[in-house]
Design brief:
alpha/beta, Rossmann fold, 2 domains
Length: about 500
């Protein structure tokens, strides 16, 4: 007992070191703290938490070898088709009132939505859009530009009748750079654009600057255009940008096609390197396992890693968000009852098994580094041994152009998700929202986890597998891609109907 107590006490010292000393020597310890936390917070990844349910799922698989046939069936036609005829009068570049620059923060999917809004704002102002500048995200640390991710020539060509777009500002405005706006107050920079600003706000506040200076820079810009009370032509234009103009660069599409092809038809190899199946089933699921450290810390939920995990996530919140994201006033149980905690890899695995997927299902993980490492997904691998990701499907050479670049890696996952039979996300977020919108637009199956129901079932420590499975089945019958009309204030990029689609009678 003394030896065990000594080990536990010793393991807490690094946590105290991280909490106390950096407060006195921030410049000295911040780089060390960042790298140290990335290891420390993953030391105590817990083992399976829902043992009874795991045992029930594994036992049922022995006696029930066939998964439910209807779970793979495509969605029936639901009466809606895309409508993209937005430009009633072709745009004349000679009538442009000036140049609009936007600086977009966030990850890939948030930036994607910002690009769509930037095109719409340029249309509202009858201005020329400069290809948006993508900021370096403090979490993902990726400096990839628009042209590193998206096919810029395709983008300009698709929209040439709608909006004037240039790759760079003309030489007479070469002074208008991100660095210029970061060194002081500038009359051509708009910092006060409200979240979900109306079209009239831009006409009243940005147009005068364009008229005076010929150029206006809007930063920050994400979420700076309303979803309601806009002309139908503007709404259709946003849809056209999102679903038609924004195409990934060729090398991302090539890698994505390679992964999709291998998921659908490549041999399944046993651990002893023997071929089990020469063709595969031809079907696969993309699981967006949004369970990275950033998400875990931001949620303020307890994921079973004990005091070490709590200290590490608290310190991470302090470093990354500098006190702007504090631990919620709700208890972990209250957060889970409200469905506000992301499902763990173990929990999303149990949900998939309850829906009828068996251990022959091919699962592609679209995910950044999983918080807790391999230990955290061990239960998921037991349930679904045919788990794949970019590294398991493609060689280091094939991944060379995207490796180490978070935005490009996310783009590959997005592309694979576009082509999957079924998409499911372990929690809501920008990737989840973007895929909901894209797959609704294409009438493709997407399972939306019922977070409140699932969380409450997982809190029930006495529930048996058959009861859990039936509750999950019943709670997800109408959450598999059925049409949902956009409600007021909801995102057009998540719910494209009726703004982006026309009803066919």
């Amino acid at each position: 007992m003394k030896k065990i107590h000594y080990i536990q006490t010793r393991s807490a010292l690094p946590a105290l070191f991280l909490i106390i000393l950096p407060n006195f020597f921030p410049h000295l310890f911040q780089p060390l703290t960042r790298s140290y936390l990335s290891v420390f917070s993953e030391w105590n990844a817990p083992s399976g938490k829902h043992i009874r349910l795991l045992d029930g799922a594994m036992l049922e698989q022995i006696s029930e070898k066939q998964q439910h046939s209807d779970i793979w069936s495509p969605l029936p036609y639901q009466g809606w088709k895309p409508c993209l005829d937005s430009a009633t009068v072709p745009f004349n570049p000679e009538n442009s009132r000036g140049y609009i620059q936007v600086f977009l923060d966030g990850g890939l999917n948030q930036q994607r939505m910002g690009i769509c809004d930037a095109v719409a704002v340029a249309k509202i102002l009858n201005a020329t859009l400069v290809i948006p500048h993508l900021e370096v995200n403090p979490v993902w640390q990726d400096s990839s530009s628009f042209t590193d991710i998206f096919d810029v020539d395709h983008f300009i060509e698709v929209l040439h009748n709608e909006v004037s777009i240039v790759k760079e500002v003309p030489s007479m405005y070469s002074w208008s750079t991100r660095e210029y706006y970061g060194t002081g107050i500038r009359p051509t920079r708009i910092k006060t654009a409200p979240v979900h600003a109306s079209a009239s706000w831009y006409l009243e506040n940005v147009l005068p600057i364009l008229n005076s200076y010929g150029i206006a820079a809007i930063a920050p810009f994400s979420h700076r255009l309303a979803f309601d009370n806009l002309p139908k032509e503007i709404q259709l234009l946003r849809c056209k940008v999102n679903f038609q103009a924004l195409v990934f660069v060729p090398h991302i599409r090539r890698l994505g096609d390679t992964l999709v092809q291998r998921l659908r038809s490549s041999p399944i190899i046993n651990k002893d390197k023997t071929v089990k199946d020469q063709t595969g089933s031809g079907k696969y699921i993309v699981l967006h396992l949004r369970f990275d450290k950033d998400m875990a810390a931001h949620s303020a939920c307890d994921f079973g890693g004990g005091k070490a995990e709590k200290l590490a996530l608290a310190k991470y919140r302090q470093i990354i968000w500098q006190g702007r994201v504090m631990k919620t006033q709700y208890t972990d149980e209250e957060l889970r009852h409200q469905g506000r905690c992301p499902l763990t890899p173990e929990e999303i695995g149990l949900l998939l098994r309850a829906l009828g997927f068996n251990n022959d299902t091919r699962l592609y993980l679209a995910s950044h580094k999983v918080y807790g490492g391999e230990a955290r997904i061990s239960s998921l691998r037991k349930l679904f041994p045919l788990i794949e990701d970019k590294k398991s499907l493609a060689s280091e050479k094939e991944r060379a152009e995207v490796e180490g670049k978070a935005s490009l890696l996310a783009a590959v996952d997005y592309y694979v998700s576009m082509h999957t039979n079924i998409f499911i996300s372990a929690s809501s977020g920008n990737m989840h929202n973007a895929m909901l919108g894209y797959r609704a637009y294409k009438n493709m199956k997407t399972i939306r986890p019922n977070m409140v129901l699932s969380s409450q079932l997982f809190l029930n420590e006495t529930i048996q597998w058959h009861e859990f499975r039936q509750s999950i089945e019943d709670g997800h019958k109408n959450r598999q891609g059925q049409i949902r009309l956009r409600k007021e204030t909801q995102s057009i990029y998540t719910y494209p109907i009726p703004d982006c689609m026309c009803q066919q009678r």
